[in-house]
Design a protein that fits this description.
The complex is a heterodimer of chains A (about 110) and B (about 250). Chain A is α+β, with helices and mostly antiparallel strands and about 110 residues long. Chain A has one domain: Winged helix-like DNA-binding domain superfamily/Winged helix DNA-binding domain (Arc Repressor Mutant, subunit A). Chain A is about 50% helix and about 20% strand. Chain A has 4 helices and 3 strands, in the order αβααββα. Chain A has a 3-stranded antiparallel beta sheet with strand order 1-3-2. In chain A, strand 2 and strand 3 form a beta hairpin. Chain B has 12 helices and no strands. By secondary structure, chain B is mostly helical. In chain B, helix 4 packs antiparallel against helix 7, helix 4 runs parallel beside helix 8 and helix 10 runs antiparallel to helix 12. The two termini of chain B are about 30 Å apart. Classes of the chains: A alpha+beta (about 110), B mainly alpha (about 250). Chains A and B meet through helix 2, helix 3 and strand 3 of A and helix 2 and helix 3 of B.
């Protein structure tokens, strides 16, 4: 699927949480909090709504399943289109930030 | 753990409930922090939230058609209240045909519903039972022209709201308010009913054109325009915005 628009902030951090490798639900949740300086603390219901949507949009995929403490645990990973969407969003935000954070402007 | 297990039953069986329970227990947060998202997520997961925007619009149009068919069928009851005699054979035939059309929409048969809506339109036009009824059938028929997947339309509010419109001033204000609150709350879970309500209310445009011809003061005209055009447009706009936002990754 081609990346066509903006990604919401929690979704952005979920994708970012997976850029270094696959992760399961709780690992993604913890990594999102860490990457956002504890600013984004995803509730479990919110996390799984996003994971569902991202899987449907082929931005992420389930790469491994295991049983831990008698419960199924799936590991999610970025797909190539998820990686390019994440990158495109990062470039967009960086360009937007550059407009404001130019040296000598608004930093006095 | 037992409460979480119970709440996770809100999610469809093919959902990773076990995995979610694992995350909930590992995170160990207070339940009040997890509860709203958990309930909302479960309801959305059960409501075809995975449909693309186009299909959600189609579903809203189908629901709007159902609301209009019900509204059209019960509209003459209002006139009946004022003592108008409407129990002609044609009126009874219109009620039956509109009722069958509503059932056809409810069980997901669009083309039979379209045929029956057109029949109801012709019958009500011939009988001249009421302008709101005729306009409701006309707009319902137009909405049913739009193809889409075969899906039943079974939402209690889609039936209760048009009944409330027909009830008009005779319905207690508390009941009307309760329905509006229910619609607003349901919009948090699923925006399609709000979209359908806005679309269905747009049938009032046809009635408004008749009413405009009888109004000669500007203020009255503005109030009429705000009510008949502004309200449906606002509902459609808000619902369309929500639909777009929820479809965003």
């Amino acid at each position: 699927m081609t990346y066509v628009g903006f990604v919401r902030e929690p979704t952005y951090f979920i994708l970012a949480a997976l850029q270094d490798g696959p992760g399961h639900g709780y690992a993604i949740m913890s990594r999102v909090a860490e990457l956002s300086d504890q600013r984004i603390s995803l509730a479990t219901g919110t996390l799984y709504q996003a994971l569902d949507r991202l899987t449907r949009e082929a931005m992420i995929e389930v790469v491994r399943e295991e049983i831990v403490n008698g419960r199924a645990r799936r590991h999610y990973a970025l797909t190539p289109s998820g990686r390019s969407a994440l990158r495109a969003e990062a470039v967009r935000m960086s360009e937007a930030a550059r407009v404001v954070l130019r040296p000598g402007l608004g930093t006095a | 753990m037992k409460t979480y297990r119970t709440l996770l039953r809100l999610y469809p069986a093919d959902h990773p409930r076990d995995e979610m329970l694992d995350v909930l227990l590992t995170a160990g947060r207070p339940m009040r922090r997890e509860l709203p998202a958990l309930v909302l997520g479960g309801l959305r997961a059960r409501l075809s939230d995975q449909d693309p925007s186009r299909v959600r619009w189609q579903a809203a149009l189908r629901t709007a058609a159902l609301m209009l068919l019900i509204a059209g069928a019960v509209a003459p009851l209002n006139d009946l209240y004022y003592g108008t005699q409407l129990r002609s054979n044609l009126t009874i035939a219109t009620w039956i045909v509109a009722g069958l059309a509503s059932v056809a929409v409810m069980i997901g048969y669009r083309l039979p519903a379209l045929g029956l809506a057109v029949a109801a339109l012709l019958l009500s036009g011939t009988d001249q039972i009421s302008i709101p009824a005729t306009s409701a059938f006309a707009v319902a028929a137009v909405f049913l022209l739009v193809p889409g997947p075969r899906r039943p339309v079974l939402h209690p509010l889609a039936i209760l709201l048009p009944l409330a419109w027909a009830g008009d001033y005779h319905l207690p204000a508390g009941v009307q308010l309760a329905l509006v609150v229910a619609l607003a709350l349901w919009t948090v879970v699923d925006e399609r009913l709000l979209l359908a309500t806005g679309l269905a209310l747009s049938a009032g445009l046809i009635v408004a054109t008749v009413e405009v011809a009888e109004i000669d003061d500007t203020r009255g005209l503005l109030i009429l325009a705000a009510w008949r055009i502004g309200l449906p447009a606002a509902l459609v706009a808000v619902a369309a915005l929500l639909l777009r936002r929820r479809a965003t990754v």
